[in-house]
Write a structure and sequence with these properties.
Layout lengths: L6 E5 L5 H8 L3 E7 L5 H8 L2 E4 L7 H8 L8 E5 L22 H12 L3 E6 L11 H10 L3 E8 L10 E8 L18 H5 L27 H8 L65 H7 L13 H10 L3 H11 L2
Parallel strand pairs: 1-2, 1-4, 2-3, 4-5
Antiparallel strand pairs: 5-7, 6-7
Helix pairs in contact: 1-10
Length: 343
């Protein structure tokens, strides 16, 4: 083991997407911090790392030093700050529910300023770097003033082995090296839905409403009678609501054109669309299975996020599990970031 092996603390860690990827890159993750206590068991058991259930905006700075056994000016330390990001999304949605998260990067900055770790990583939605209300420009100025160099840009997870099209804003910073660059996208190969979840032996055929009591968690959401009728009328491998007769369309779509991903099936030979917190719901996007009459299962969603096949999510609520999976940074994207830090 390297004497100065890189260590990390994962702020806003959720179920551990970054932690999982960093560990795959050879980084020792000391633990994570998250306001959602539902993530504790999933995070700790899968990653063998400590979980601090806390609101970062109210957390005492010295507390994390004691909890994770870190010190100020630690050169081999990485602070990860992938704060909740819906408020800055380019997608036009009601921002009122996510408004309280809009300044979490400022809270994270205070910890960076206090501890001055050797490295910093943040990830957020595209638009975070362009939104005039975003604190990112202040954060970058702060990094420069504190002697950090950084690189940032938009990366698509599908170019890092993740079988999903997921564009993200990424920033990597260091005060140890003279230069750092975010990883290069490898566009020579894109993993498809078929490659990820098309193996019928690993992912057996199941119906809508299947409840899997095993650790594999191949659980699927129930479908109403009309939605079951709709998906049965949707062409396999990429079909959508344009395949339906007029009588079974929701009234709002009788004359509306566009947004054809809603109620759509995934394409076998393309990456999945962005996995959101509602990916297990047939009516919330192109989350219908390519050929089976159901939405994708919890395990399929986790695999499309690039979580290891044996990564178990602990909760009695399927909604909570889907939220943990959808909110995660894809581990394979995080792994590629970690490899840059470790180089």
């Amino acid at each position: 083991m390297k004497k100065n092996r890189l260590k990390a603390v994962d702020f806003f860690c959720s179920a551990g997407g970054v932690t999982c990827g960093f560990k795959q890159a050879g980084i020792e993750v000391l633990g994570g911090i998250d306001i959602d206590k539902n993530c504790k068991e999933t995070y700790e058991i899968n990653n063998s790392a400590k979980f601090l259930n806390a609101d970062v905006s109210k957390l005492d700075k010295k507390q994390i030093g004691k909890f994770f056994k870190i010190r100020r000016n630690q050169r081999n330390l990485i602070f990860v700050g992938c704060s909740p990001c819906q408020y800055y999304s380019n997608i036009t949605t009601n921002k009122s529910k996510s408004k309280k998260t809009r300044l979490l990067l400022e809270d994270f900055r205070e910890f960076v300023e206090f501890y001055r770790p050797g490295y910093v990583f943040i990830e957020n939605v595209p638009g975070f770097d362009k939104n005039p209300k975003s604190p990112i420009e202040r954060f970058k100025s702060f990094l420069t003033d504190e002697g950090y160099v950084f690189d940032d840009g938009i990366l698509n997870s599908k170019y890092f082995g993740v079988p999903q099209s997921r564009r993200r804003y990424v920033l990597m910073a260091t005060r140890i090296k003279k230069k750092i660059s975010i990883p290069n996208e490898d566009r020579s190969y894109v993993k498809t839905v078929r490659e990820a979840i098309g193996n019928s032996e690993r992912f057996p055929v199941v119906d809508a409403g299947n409840f899997d009591t095993t650790d594999f968690q191949h659980t699927t959401a129930r479908l109403s009678k009309v939605n079951l009728q709709r998906i049965r009328l949707t062409k396999h491998d990429g079909g959508d609501r344009r395949d339906w007769p007029q009588g079974i369309k929701p009234k709002c779509y009788n004359t509306h054109k566009g947004h054809y991903d809603v109620y759509g099936r995934m394409f076998w030979d393309k990456p999945a669309p962005t996995i959101t917190t509602r990916f297990n719901s047939y009516s919330n996007g192109r989350y219908g299975h390519p050929v089976q009459d159901r939405a994708i299962s919890l395990r399929e969603g986790a695999v499309l996020q690039s979580f290891p096949i044996d990564y178990k999510f602990y909760s009695s609520s399927n909604v909570t599990i889907a939220k943990m999976i959808g909110n995660a940074v894809p581990p394979l994207l995080a792994k590629n970031v970690g490899k840059i830090f470790n180089s």
